[in-house]
Amino acid sequence: MASAIPHGRSNFRCASCSRRNAVSGAVTKVTALFFESIFFGIGADPPKFHPTLKVILVCISKHSYQNGVSDFEFLRAIIFGDHEHYDPESSQVCNLFDISLPDGREHFLMILLLSFIERSSDSGEGFATASSVFRYAQDLQFAPSQIHSSLDRAVAKGLIETSPRFAPAQRWEAFRITSVGAYSVRRLLQSFSYVDAMIVDTPIVDGVVRDAVRNAQTIHQRLDRFELFLSYLENQAHKIDWSVAGYAWTGAFEGLKQDFLRARRRAGSPPAHKRYPVQTA
Fold first, then answer.
1. What is the pTM of this model?
2. Among 27, 171, 189, 229, which is least packed, fewest CB within 10 Å?
C-alpha cells in the first residue's frame, strides 16, 4: 500500500469480541473450506451448498445462537478469524474496496474486473484473455499499476485463477473467476456484515469523510459509520460511467442498502444521517 494513500484503518476493540470468541475457534477451522468450496453450482439462484459443509456451518450457527452470537457476529467471526479486527494479511476474505492510489474510482476496480472476467470468459474452459482484461480497465481510464494491483490481490485471495497456473505475473495470459470470486462479488458485496468489516481497512480519499469515520464499538455506532460509508461510496461511484463499464452497480448498491436497512431495523437504531430512512411499511 502506497504511503500517500490516506487510510481509514485503525486497530480497535469490538464490544462483541468476547461473545465472538465463543465461535471464532470453530469458525477458523472451516474458513478455508468455506471459501474454497462454499458453492458447487455458484451459477444457481440460490446457489447450492456442499452437503458436508452445510452440516458443519449449521452446527456452528446453532452453537452461535445458543451462545448469544447473532448471524451478524457469526459472519464477522468468519472474516476476522482469531483477530479482533479485519487483517488483510491473515484473513482469507478479500477487501474488494481496497485501493493502491488515492483515486476513489479504484474502490470499484476489482468488482469491475471480476464481473468482466466472468462475463467475458470463453465457452470452453471459462478464461478471459489478459489482453482483453487490461484493455477493458484501461478504457475506463484506470492506470496499469492499478489494474496489476487489483489482479495481484484477486489471485492471492483466490478470487481468480490464472493461465498458466502458478506462473509469475508477467506470464499471465488469461484469467478465470473462481467460486470464491463469484460469491464475493455477487453476495458479499451486498452484505452489511462484510462491508462493515472492510471499512476500517479501506483507504478513504475524501478528507471530510475520513475524519468522520471513527472507531465503532457498539452496533449502533457501526450502523452510523456504515451509513456514512454508503454515502461516500455513492459519491465515488458517480465518477464512473457505468453504462460503459457494463456492470449493474445500481442493483448491487441497492442490495447493500437494503441489507443495511434490515440491520438497522433489527437493532432498533434510527437513521443517523437521514440519507436512507428505514421504511416502516
1. 0.75
2. 171
Kindly report which listed range (117-126, 173-182, 248-257) carries the lowest average pLDDT score: 117-126
- Report yes or no on 198 lying in a domain: no
Domain hosting residue 139, numbered range: 104-182
Is 200 domain-assigned? no
Residue 110 is assigned to a structural domain of this protein: yes
Q: Which letter does DSSP use for residue 163 in this model? A: E
DSSP readout, 74-96?
A: HHHHHHHTTSSS--TTT-SS--T
| Of residues 219, 6, 251, the one with CA closest to residue 104 | 6
Tell whether 237 is covered by a domain: no
The strand order across the sheet containing 174-177 reads: 128-129, 174-177, 160-163
Q: What are the phi and psi torsion angles at 52 (to 5°)?
A: -65, -40
CATH number of domain containing 147: 1.10.10.10
Q: Say which residue, 10 or 147, is predicted with more confidence.
A: 147
pLDDT greater at residue 228 or residue 33: 228
Query: The cell 468468519 sits on which residue?
Result: 78
For cell 478513504, the residue is 204
**Distance between CA atoms of 178 and 126, rounded to whole angstroms?**
10
The rounded mean pLDDT for the chain is 78
The full DSSP string for 34-64 is HHHHSBSSTTSSSPPBPHHHHHHHHHHHHHH
Residues constituting the chain: 281
Number of domains into which the chain is organized: 1
**Range with the poorest average pLDDT among 86-100, 107-121, 130-144:** 86-100
